[in-house]
Structures are given as structure tokens and as C-alpha cells.
Write a structure and sequence with these properties.
By secondary structure, this protein is mostly helical. It has helices spanning 9-26, 32-55.
């Protein structure tokens, strides 16, 4: 049985944050402290979103 998803505002925000977290993991930063903080935040959101929405479904 195939499930269709409606693109609501909540889903749009979640997907946008997921894409931003992937981009932050791939980009480089000028300041080392900012680079580490963005990598940690991006990786944390990426792991949480992946486990919650993709693997557990």
C-alpha cells in the first residue's frame, strides 16, 4: 500500500531544515568555533530526523 504525503507548512519546514542540515554538513566555515557549532547542530538534526521519520516508518 503506497502512502501519499500532503505538503503542509509543518512538512515544508521540516524538509527545509533537513536540507539546511545537509548543506551545513558539507560546507566550510571561516571561523573554527562557528564551524564546529554548525557541524554539531547539522549532524544532530540530520540524525534525529533520519531516525525519527525515515527509519522508524
Amino acid at each position: 500500500m503506497q502512502k501519499y504525503y500532503k505538503l503542509s507548512f509543518k512538512n515544508y519546514v521540516l524538509i527545509t531544515l533537513y536540507i539546511i542540515s545537509i548543506i551545513t554538513l558539507l560546507t566550510e566555515g571561516a571561523d573554527f568555533k562557528t564551524l564546529i557549532i554548525t557541524k554539531i547542530i547539522g549532524l544532530t538534526y540530520f540524525i534525529i530526523f533520519t531516525l525519527r521519520n525515515i527509519i522508524h516508518r
